[in-house]
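User: Could you check the structure of this?
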Amino acid sequence: MGAAAQASGAEVPTDAKGKVIPGFEKSEKGADHKEVWRPFSDRKIRVGIAGYGLCHFGAQFGFQDHPNVEVVAVTDLDPKRCAELAVACGCEKTYPSCEEMITDDSIEAVFIATDAPSHARLAIAALEHGKHVASAVPAVYGSLEDAALLAAAVKKSGRKYMMFETSCFHADLYEFRQRYEAGEYGKIVYSEGEYYHYFKEPIGGYNPKTNTVDLEGWRKGLPPQWYPTHATAYYVGVTGGSFTEVSCMGMPSEVPHLQAANNDYGNPFGSEIALFRTSEGGMSRMAVA
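Assistant: Sure, the predicted structure tokens are below.
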């Protein structure tokens, strides 16, 4: 999907200062993006997409370009962004919210690309309405309880749930996964991952207010290891493994608006380094800021 989206010439999303948002860099050299999707049946899955935002994430995975997909509806809380998402996906039908869109019985599956704190809630609601669900990262937002509820909703619904970790669509990760599965690397004893965001300004030019919807704040002071997915993705994506235990240390932030007294989480840390035990017995150092 990632290769096909790049082949289609999808716009690279940038922040308010015009810088490419981390994770969207097209830095893979030598990747062949000339291949195009070919239909594998006459069946077209009817999909609804929720969320455009600064990342333009709803259109980044190329649903609108897949020959076996029909994007039948889109939604974003901001009417302007909702209209832009409809144009990007070649879709005429829009809804003012994801909650309303998932009640549409003609939709078989939804892609949830909204703000991170809403992913689990909306995914669970969509599953309860009989939809297959894909969501942007993270699947849950700092809550093991939400993880359990999401897992239970998937099991009860009998539908498919997928989390679209951006890094797993990178050409280099796919290459390393193929090599790992071929046995070239053996058992991974040690691995590392890093994912950094520096929010010098209160909203970092990354999660700005809109005229109609105020989503400012959920990134402000965000505890780093609540959202480690782009760091941990390479170990998980390459090996198909998981992490079984963790020890973590943090460094207090020197940025005033990120200090504990000035964010809703009471989080004092701007950077955190974690050492994970992996499911194959190795270790992974993960840095998130």
